Amino acid sequence: MIRVAPAPEPEDFDGKVRQPGRRAIAEMVGAPGLPKRPGRPRAVIAVSEDAIPADKFPPIWTAALPELLAAYGRVCAYMSFYIERVTGAASVDHMLPKSVDWLDIYEWRNYRLACSLMNSRKNDYQDVLDPFEIDDGWFRLELIGYQVIPDPNLPPDMAQKVQTTIDRLKLNDYECLKLREEYAEAFLRGDVSQAHLHKRAPFLAREIERAALQEEEVVVA
User: Fold this and answer.
1) 128 lies in a domain?
2) Which of 61, 130, 174, 184 has the smallest CB count inside 10 Å?
3) What residue numbers bound the domain in which 52 lies?
4) Which pLDDT does position 218 carry in this prediction?
């Protein structure tokens, strides 16, 4: 993982996601005095917003997916790989899970662009570090084997949080390792440029560059 800079909220987000989402919640708790809208009203299913089951919130957030893809260059916030068109499955991850706080369900600031695999692995767990809040360098990559590891210089408590994130997301499973290896070998063969690697695998690109810089420093010394 690498730090992801939060993108500004799209101008049409309020009308496309937030307001329809809040309206849906109000209908599901039977809020009085709601103005009429086109279509059939939603059934009342709970006495309060907090009592709505997480799986009952309508997925209006998917309307923000095109903007998330554009804002973050189609790169998964957790796996740090490009989400391919057609064959890749992109999704909206709620950093604060839907089961925790209904107030953030339809808020842009709570959305992270994730491939469907990482989204399903994170699920409702809250022990995954936020890509918006980590520092670059907390996650390192061993370029022999391509294992993600915590920075050896991190304090023990932070190193444990990084390791927990790695374990929760299974960033070192076989498929993740092979994908890093394939990208790295293609770059080292000259099949892809450095710019292309940064676009498709920014974490891997950064770690390759870091290792090269360290080698140069050793030679100079």
Assistant:
1) no
2) 174
3) 1-122
4) 53
Q: Give pLDDT, residue 86.
A: 84
Whether residue 7 is found in the same domain as residue 113: yes
Give the DSSP letter of residue 17: I
Inside any domain, residue 127: no
Asked, for residue 10, whether it belongs to a domain, the answer is yes
Evaluate whether 48 touches 31 at the Cβ level (below 8 Å): no
Number of folded domains that form the chain: 2
Per-residue pLDDT at 219:
55
> What is the distance between the alpha carbons of residues 149 and 136, in angstroms, rounded to a whole number?
13
3-class state of residue 175 by DSSP: helix
User: What tokens appear for 114 in the block?
Assistant: 């994730």
Predicted local distance difference test score (pLDDT) of residue 215 = 67
Consecutive 10-residue runs of the chain (221 residues): their mean pLDDT?
A: 96 97 96 90 94 96 97 97 91 95 96 97 96 96 94 97 98 96 95 95 95 66 54
pTM (2 d.p.): 0.92
State the pLDDT at residue 213: 76
Q: Which of 88, 122, 156 is the last residue of a domain?
A: 122
Domain boundary among 70, 98, 122: 122
Neighbours of 188 (CB within 10 A): 10
Residue 178 resides in a domain: yes
DSSP helix, strand, coil percent of the chain (3-state; round to 5): 45, 10, 45
Strand pairing partners for 93?
Answer: 112
Q: Give the residue among 184, 148, 183 at the shortest CA–CA distance from 163.
A: 148
